[in-house]
Amino acid sequence: MSAPVKISPLVAVASTQPAALHNQAGWSVLELPAQTGALRMHDHSARAKLIVEGASAAQLLATLWSGTPTAINAGWTDGQVGVYCLRPDRYLVHGAAGTDEALEARVRSALPAGQLLAVTNITHGRTEIQLAGTQCVALLSRLCALNFAASEFPNMCAKQTSVAKISQVVVRCDAGAMPAYTLIGARSLGQYLWAALLAAGIDL
C-alpha cells in the first residue's frame, strides 16, 4: 500500500490541462510541464505557512529569527524561513515544503508563559501559487489594484489585498534578478484563482 499524502487544493487542475501530479515532501501537488519564458505558474501549496498573532509577536519571533521585521509589510529571510509583518500583531512565517510541523513546534516551544499569543498552522487551509517571470506585474495588475512599482513593493514585501476579487496575501520573492510573487489564499478558492490567472494572462 502506498503511503498517504496530503493533497494540494489544485490537484483537480490536472484533469483540465496538461499537468501531472507528483509527491513533494508528502504532498500530492500539481506539476506543470517545464516552463520557460516571461510568465510561469507553480503550485507551491505544500510550502509551510504559519500565522503568529499577538501584541508581542515580533518579540517572540525575534528570539528565533533575529532579522524579524517590525515595519508593516516588511519581510526577511535567512534563505530557509521567511518572516513577514502583515500587521504589528500579525506575522506570516513561511518555509519549505514539509517543514510546517517542525516550524510550528519551534515557535510554540518559545512561547513565553502568560503572553496572549496564538500560533496557527494554516498550511493545509491555504492554496499557494507562485508567479515568476518578467510579465508577473503585467498579469497581477490586471487582477489587483496594488502598486507593484519597486519603490512601493520591493523584494521581501508582503501585503494583504484582493486578487481577482478574493482575499490573498501577496509576497514578493524574487529569484535573483527574476521577479516572482507568491499568492496565498483560501484553499476553497484555489482552483478559481488558478483559472482566473490563466484567463487574465492568456496573451502573456
* Order of helical and strand elements: EEEEEHEEEHEEHEEEH
Mean pLDDT: 92
Strand content: 25-35%
Strand count, sense and closure of the main sheet? 5 strands, antiparallel
Computed structural class: alpha+beta
Biggest sheet strand order reads 4-10-13-12-11
Shape: globular
Percentage of residues assigned to helices? 10-25%
Number of strands: 13
| Number of helical stretches of at least 4 residues | 4
The Rg value, from CA coordinates, equals 17 Å
Give the end-to-end Cα distance, rounded to a whole number of Å: 43 Å
Poorly predicted ranges: none
Can you lay out the helices and strands and say which pair or pack?
Blueprint: E1 6-7, E2 20-24, E3 27-31, E4 40-43, E5 47-53, H1 57-64, E6 75-77, E7 82-87, E8 90-97, H2 100-109, E9 118-121, E10 126-132, H3 136-143, E11 158-163, E12 166-172, E13 180-186, H4 190-200
Parallel strand pairs: 1-3
Antiparallel strand pairs: 2-3, 4-10, 5-8, 5-9, 6-7, 7-8, 10-13, 11-12, 12-13
Q: Can you walk through the features of this model?
A:
The protein has 204 residues and is an alpha+beta fold. Helix content is 18%, strand content 35%. The chain has helices at residues 57-64, 100-109, 136-143, 190-200; strands at 6-7, 20-24, 27-31, 40-43, 47-53, 75-77, 82-87, 90-97, 118-121, 126-132, 158-163, 166-172, 180-186. It has a five-stranded antiparallel β-sheet, with helices on one face. It is globular. The model has no long low-confidence stretch (mean pLDDT 92).
